[in-house]
Structure to design on (410 residues):
């Protein structure tokens, strides 16, 4: 059985607005064994929405909509469902009273428009909304389950998990399992080479994806039930893990920073950073991991050469002799960060992110990393070309990976 996810909202068609609801719903549906065959983003137009719903119902067993359930003029989902089902909208007096009581409880009076939220196509039922005033709508039409949820992500998620997912759980005829394996320190072509023959494992589809400094293997397996799907996936995953060894740093939601944080926490060690061309991205990545105050001492962003000297104690003679983007300066930055911040490890990045500033000797993309662990300083040079964002993100990934490898070294 397949699903279709439709996100409703003209604002979602504006540049920079991401339909994260549909991404979340697609993953959740997979977890209960339902694959999506397509998804769409549509403006607040009841005729277009209704056309899409009818099209979805013709080819899928489940249709999930998000957005357009509020009380304002641009909230068109109720009318669209009424058109798609050819069923009139009916106002539910009990829901009108419920919405009014929500307002009274906050010392406010519901406007007449609020009662629009109490309308649903004849034959449909409600999906209660514990976090807001707009209830969701659940209908079974021509044997297709159609669920309309609010656009507000927290409301949509809670209502899907509490009401819609249990309703769909028994409907999937097959089981699905998925896993993302995350790899650092190896280019995509090398990862592909190492595991390519496993892509054809029966019942398991693998997709390879490269992002800045890391590679992801997305595994999706199907079986007659979830247990069978999980067992097939586990066999392929174990083979991939054996081949990729320490280059495989984590799975699913783990990030390089969260893995490094876990390793530091379990060893009761701390890290401090000194960064130039990444302008604080390394510190930001480390502090994205929850609980980072236990193992991240702090960091210094020293763009200007004199700050490398005054804040991180890099001798200016070193900068004059080798240039700010050099291995000796990266080493001195790592040592300085460790000492100045009083950490167990000092991690440093200095490089040329471009687009200007490159030379024949040091082209754009030249980045020096260093890690001081108190006993030894290791350094690494990156020299991949790329745009500014890519160079900076790859530098952060490589720096985190340098520390990760030091922490797992046997
Ligand atoms: P409702 O159905 O509750 O009326 P709506 O579609 O009218 O929701 P808006 O009021 O336009 O939603 O937006 C409420 C919030 O939900 C906004 O922050 C908006 O960015 C967010 N939102 C709406 N749809 C999505 C989506 N598909 N993905 C991510 N965020 C969304």
């Amino acid at each position: 059985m397949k699903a279709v996810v439709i996100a409703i909202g003209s604002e979602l068609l504006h540049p920079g607005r991401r339909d994260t609801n549909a991404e979340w719903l697609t993953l959740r549906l997979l977890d209960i064994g339902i694959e999506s065959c397509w998804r769409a983003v549509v403006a607040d137009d009841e005729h277009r929405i209704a056309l899409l719903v009818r099209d979805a119902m013709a080819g899928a067993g489940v249709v999930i909509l998000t957005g357009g359930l509020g009380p304002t003029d641009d909230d068109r989902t109720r009318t669209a469902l009424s058109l798609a089902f050819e069923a009139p909208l009916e106002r539910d007096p009990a829901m009108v009273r419920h919405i009014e009581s929500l307002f009274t409880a906050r010392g406010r009076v519901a406007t007449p428009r609020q009662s629009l939220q109490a309308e649903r196509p004849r034959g449909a039922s409600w999906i209660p909304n514990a976090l807001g005033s707009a209830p969701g709508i659940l209908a079974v039409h021509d044997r297709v389950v159609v669920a309309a949820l609010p656009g507000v992500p927290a409301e949509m998620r809670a209502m899907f998990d509490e009401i819609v997912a249990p309703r769909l759980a028994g409907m999937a005829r097959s089981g699905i399992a998925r896993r993302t394996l995350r790899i650092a320190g190896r280019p995509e072509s090398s990862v592909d080479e190492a595991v390519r023959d496993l892509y054809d494992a029966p019942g398991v589809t693998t997709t390879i994806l490269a992002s800045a400094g890391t590679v992801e293997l997305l595994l999706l397996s199907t079986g007659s039930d979830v247990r069978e799907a999980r067992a097939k996936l586990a066999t392929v995953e174990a083979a991939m893990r054996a081949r990729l060894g320490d280059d495989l740093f984590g799975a699913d939601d783990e990030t390089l920073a969260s893995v490094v944080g876990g390793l530091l926490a379990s060893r009761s060690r701390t890290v401090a950073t000194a960064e130039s061309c990444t302008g604080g991205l390394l510190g930001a990545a480390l502090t994205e991991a929850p609980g980072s105050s236990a193992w991240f001492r702090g960091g210094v962003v020293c763009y200007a050469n004199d700050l490398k000297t005054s804040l991180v104690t890099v001798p200016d003679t070193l900068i004059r002799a080798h240039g700010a983007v050099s291995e000796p300066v990266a080493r001195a930055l790592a040592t300085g960060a460790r000492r100045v911040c009083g950490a167990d490890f000092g991690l440093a990045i200095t490089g040329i992110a471009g687009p200007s500033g490159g030379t024949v000797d040091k082209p754009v993309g030249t980045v020096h990393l260093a890690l001081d662990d108190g006993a030894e300083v290791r350094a690494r040079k990156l020299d991949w070309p790329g745009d500014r964002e890519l160079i900076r993100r790859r530098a952060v990934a490589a720096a985190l990976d340098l520390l990760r490898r030091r922490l797992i070294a046997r």
Observations:
- The longest helix spans residues 388-408.
- The pocket of adenosine-5'-triphosphate is lined by residues 7, 9, 11-12, 19-22, 66-70, 75, 134, 150-153 (CB under 6 Å).
- The chain has a mean pLDDT of 95.
